[in-house]
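Record type: ASSEMBLY
Status: queued
Input:
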Amino acid sequence: MSTATIDKSQQTHFPPADSRDRAKNFVRQLQDEICTGLEELDGKAKFQEDNWTRPGGGGGRTRVIRDGGVFEQGGVNFSEVWGDSLPPAILTQRPEAAGHGFFATGTSMVLHPRNPYVPTVHLNYRYFEAGPVWWFGGGADLTPYYPFAEDAVHFHKTHKEACDKHHPEYYPAFKKWCDEYFYLKHRQEARGIGGLFFDYQDYRGKLYGGPDPNGDAAKYSDRVGEISRNWEDIFAFIQSCGRAFLPAYLTIANRRKDMEWSDRERQFQLYRRGRYVEFNLVYDRGTVFGLQTNGRTESILMSLPPLTRWEYCYSPEAGSREDELYQTFLKPQDWVNWQG
Amino acid sequence: MSTATIDKSQQTHFPPADSRDRAKNFVRQLQDEICTGLEELDGKAKFQEDNWTRPGGGGGRTRVIRDGGVFEQGGVNFSEVWGDSLPPAILTQRPEAAGHGFFATGTSMVLHPRNPYVPTVHLNYRYFEAGPVWWFGGGADLTPYYPFAEDAVHFHKTHKEACDKHHPEYYPAFKKWCDEYFYLKHRQEARGIGGLFFDYQDYRGKLYGGPDPNGDAAKYSDRVGEISRNWEDIFAFIQSCGRAFLPAYLTIANRRKDMEWSDRERQFQLYRRGRYVEFNLVYDRGTVFGLQTNGRTESILMSLPPLTRWEYCYSPEAGSREDELYQTFLKPQDWVNWQG
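Status: finished
Output:
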């Protein structure tokens, strides 16, 4: 299906012959499972599906839910694409891929609930092959509008459990990476309470590179060691993470979805959604990758909220719940050991 | 006031000794004049002013109008900043400025009216000095939500008259540059009906470079000739352009501000405002410059609309006024010779 092939002579730790199909089947199945779970939660709306093809190679299926019982708007995307060469931003990170075709498959999701007490949430798991290199990336992170420590603890603990089944260093490394990646430098704010984020996971086993001096989180650094693992190990880990999403999120959404809210909470939610827009359009690598590779714009920008507002120089009232969000929840915290 | 100085030995066409003060005084006075004219139009709200200083050097005054008779939200900013070096994106365009301090002053404005029949409008005029180089940049462009050809014609004709007083090549070159600059590649749409845009105007007299193959509109190309002019000529041109704004916009706003509108027009306006956000956060050089130079975030993002919405796969009904906007007004047109 693709012109890109792994050059097996270049490495000892190559993927299995059916790596692309297995990765693709998993992310597509994850899209199915998540959509089923979310429709059950929503109780009213159903996902509508668009199938599309990409002129440069490949395609996908975009599913959108709107005007639901819980979700004002949300989308879960699956794609499988290939082409002649990766965009420059990725080649800088993986120069070995230069001159080779690439294959990429993944699922990504953003949900914007109507009730301001239900957090917005994002998930993405992806797999790349290009010439001699392959890697997995992904993660999930939560963006609450109101501060509930038990929700942040539950989201992190559920993902930590998924990680711990595979390696004790995964959660601390990828939690930190998430805090650093989902950061709005121009606001000096975290996007939310974080979760997991990782990229370029391959047999070389470097877990966490931290941001390099140019602000790019994807480069390896001396700060991390290596662990021994192969394609199967990482694929198994990805599956555990992906399947941690529904237990992590449904518990939180069910706790919050019937709480009463007023215009005050709604206005704050609309204001905070502006930060989501700012992050995705200014910083997000997936969005930039999509726009650079002439991706399907409606599927890429499906992550943007249904309604958003900006207000010049807004600042929450000291001591309010909105202020608590800023003071505590928009800064990295050790949520799994939280003693609130 | 600044550590940057023009090295007069490096060029024959240097600016007058008081160039910085004159440029600054002009853009600051333009801010005053525009605010006065807009308050009169609005009839209800007044601009509120914030004075701020920039840690790296300089400062500004930001003026915001909200919940007015005409304007839902809008801002007019003045700034005068200096520092040790220009950001990389500008140095790529003006390598002569490398290793030198810089001085920059300008005024910028974005207005978001409430009535969907009144267009959103943007203006920016700016002046830079850095080592051996100096230049003016700026322009104004109109973003209507509903298609009124007479408004587009008036906006363009008023700016053409201001240009024609200085050089007959100005309007055609800068109208074209505007069409190319305010273009959303990922949507394949113009931001609005354009106006004027230019950058790097100096004694070298290159008027229009067009986008280079990398998509940067600021590089000179062989497609344009040179005209003879000096600092005074360009400064006089900038003043004419800046002072064309009120006559251009007030006529249009007065035509439209009392037209009745319903939820249909409001929803379309909110949707189209999303494109303004996408352009400013993904493509706009002024926004990127501001964020790169640790500018004042609230002043930079003052351009974003008060309320915005995104809708997956929206498409206007064929033959509707919304469709006419897409078919005719979001594509470059020869508005001064329009025979609609």
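Annotation: The interface with chain A takes residues 50, 62, 64, 66, 73, 75, 185-187, 270, 274, 277-278, 281-282, 291, 297-298, 300-302, 304-313 of chain B (CB under 8 Å).
Annotation: The first strand of chain B starts at residue 48 and ends at 53.
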